[in-house]
Amino acid sequence: MIYGAGALGSFVGGMLSQRHEVTLVGRREHMTAIKQHGLCISGATELTVHPMTAEALSDRDVDLVVLTVKAYDTAAAAEDIAATCGAPVLSLQNGLENEQTLQEMLGEGRVIGGVISHGVRYAGPGHVEHTGTGDTVIGELDGTISRRVETIADALSGCDIATTPSDDIWRMIWRKAVVNAAINPLTALLRCRNGFLLENEDTRRLMHTICREGIMVASACDVDVNDVVEQAELVARRTARNHSSMLQSLEHGRPTEIDHINGAIAAHGKKHGVAAPVNETLTRLVRALEEKPLLPPEGHRS
């Protein structure tokens, strides 16, 4: 079951549904379109599939819950899952604190960590665009390579989402968070595709600065992400055509995950006495943009 089937969740669930029984849980308009016409995946992947759909989690037999809700909805999702089913939960979310929240609310043994860097854009009800391929890594939070992780990785890989089991998933979660911190807020503020950040020298330098702050903060938390500058550039290159998830949120008038990405990096830095001024500034700017996105067109009275 995919809980939070927006752009990314629909893509993951749609790919899995080629060989497995999958139920997507998401917004009514999107789920209705998929039920009536199937899920269309276009772009790097061209596919129409027909997964089952629902607008709420049910108590039916579920082998695995793949959680793809926004980070600010993690606690509410965990509460819903705890009351409804006892299946393991694989988090494929953005941000630094989702797994801790899930562990606290569901118990340590139920939670599997994961990161995925495919570019996916919501193109309309029943349709997502796969704008860039990427890597997927999953792992137990205690650092073991369990049979269930191997089984899930095999299932994803068998449906063309190449997935690697990891014995150091916390490092991968931090790594992705710093990469997202370097890409998402800049594209959201500039209203640009990911690839523009590499084409412009100023934005490229800003990406590097954000990454360096992330490296120092992660190090203070005993996590090594020293290769993250190169990784951020690689992800931006692979998803050059993509609108970041943060930009998509602003485009649809929804809250962003800024507090759980750049804001979380800045907060961890403050806790450990490591300054992260660029991450903190970007957090404040995106928060402001959420409240008042744009000036009205010239000559138009607000």
Query: What is the general shape?
Result: globular
Strand content: 15-25%
- Backbone structural class: alpha/beta
The tally of structural domains comes to: 2
Strand order of the largest sheet: 5-2-1-6-7-8-11-12
Helical content stands at 40-55%
CATH homologous superfamily identity of the largest domain: NAD(P)-binding Rossmann-like Domain
Q: Mind summarizing the main beta sheet?
A: 8 strands, mixed
The count of strands amounts to 12
Mean pLDDT rating: 93
User: Could you say what the CATH architecture of the largest domain is?
Assistant: 3-Layer(aba) Sandwich
Kindly report how far apart the N and C termini lie: 44 Å
CATH topology of the largest domain: Rossmann fold
Q: Using only CA atoms, what is the Rg? A: 19 Å
CATH class of the largest domain: Alpha Beta
Order of helices and strands: EHEHEEEEHEHEEEEHEHHHHHHH
Number of contiguous helices: 12
Q: Spans of 5+ residues with little confidence (pLDDT < 50)? A: none
